[in-house]
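Record 1 of the preview.
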Amino acid sequence: MIKTEDNELREKLVEYLQQFVTESRQARLTEILQNRTRHVTVVLEDLFQAQNISAVLRTCDCYGVQDVHVIQHSNAFEANKDISMGADKWLTIHKYPHSEHNVKDCIDRLHEQGYWVAATLPDERKRTIFDLPVEQKTAFLFGTELTGLSEEAIKYADGNVLIPMYGFTESFNISNSAAIILSHFSEKMRQSDVKWQLSDEEKAELYFEWLQKTVKDPDGLIRQYYKSTKS
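->
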């Protein structure tokens, strides 16, 4: 995947690559970009079941959430393509490999980007997702299937949120939790006056990235472009 901070070069490469993409496909990419957001993001800590990871990625894509942050401890991140339906291809996935400070590194990065970090916990004393304001950029932390979030993740989070439940079970499956939270937050956000859309620069960067993922042999085509400009 080729990236460039040279806007003029990127525009020329986009124009070149578009020759190999149908107009309807170009329109589809543009349409989806209008609904992409970085106002809300998801953090997955040490999930080990590929079906759950993949289901969460698919949910993020469906609700227009562009970024997913993955904290790895003992479990390597691996998506199940049959379940994710290729969602991971269109998302920006930030990985934090196992290290002594990877949880803090992730949360520090989110704070630098202006996120309020919410640990998702089944604790009735905490605020519910319905109490959360959408004006603040928010990152939702989800823990491993068996033990939930680590003590470190809870420590560095800005607060805890829960999904109200009225049955005998104490928690939802993690993929269901992510779907419920993103469904509520995303819809409330989109109906608000919050500026949740991507910037023009972010859209341009993603469009270039997605074009490369759409065409066959993007590296070869770009090499061909450079060769043609030198002849």
